[in-house]
Design a protein that fits this description.
The protein is α/β, with parallel strands linked by helices. It folds into 2 domains: about 140 residues, Rossmann fold (3-Layer(aba) Sandwich), CATH 3.40.50.2020; about 140 residues, 3-Layer(aba) Sandwich (Rossmann fold), CATH 3.40.50.2020. It is about 30% helix and about 30% strand. It contains 9 helices and 16 strands. Strand 6, helix 3 and strand 7 form a beta-alpha-beta unit. Helix 1 packs across helix 9 and helix 4 packs parallel to helix 6. The radius of gyration is 20 Å and the shape is globular. The two termini are about 20 Å apart.
Amino acid sequence: MDILIGFPEGAALAGNLAARTGLPLHQVSLHRFPDGESLVRLEAAPERAVIVRSLDQPNAKLVELQFLAGALRERGAKELTLVAPYLAYMRQDMEFRPGEVVSQRIMGRWLGGLFDRIVTVDPHLHRTHDLGEVFPGGRSAALTAGPLLGAWARAQGAADQGWIVLGPDEESDHLVEGAASAAGVQGIVGLKVRRGDHDVSVGLPAGTNLTGRTILFVDDIISSGGTLIDAAKVAYAHGAARVLAATVHAVFPMERLEAFKAAGIDSVVSADGIPHPTNAIGLSDLIADCLAVL
């Protein structure tokens, strides 16, 4: 029997994906003890299972995934697929300072040993250009939600109103291209300089004129929002009339919306891989189509 397994915090996406794939949905039950240990419970013994869990706030989630995957193997599971729309520990892909642990390689070996197939969406990769490098020998897919962000923009009238899609740097190029094409508008890729986790500046190509235009800022993740705020300031300095934002992974606290508003950002929307009040873009069709061919 094939089943789809969801976790409590991601029930909405798991439910949508189950409906889209036709797989029966089983929900994991979790209990966390006062000392931080987790108890994982699932009454199922499938031959094949798709497990859906985004790995934001990852540490406890990863331990619980290992318990679940190990238990399913003990019960006879032959194939386990992990759908992790947000994939943790991908940014550290080299030793920047002596002694730093390269988490991407280690995480790849760990998850690759637990799961036969891994599906993620716009992973936060830098120098690694193929997810197969992270999970060698396994089947993996790195999907992009760029066209979905663009479809949302088109539904808001982006093409008729002449919006411009703006990405912060060259790493956002694929998102900008996908979003701008789907929206039917122009795309621009900026230049980002990062001096620290909360110290980021964004520049625009020489001669950029945004006079009177609505700017849709797109990025794979909005966490502190520093990049978004700086991009809005730069856009307004170049004549923009309005700034909106769309992201694949929203991990910022809702209190940050006040700072976004103060910077002139009208609204922020996100895809639903990580449950967040800004969710407005569904990923279930994108993921289901991938599962059908992976």
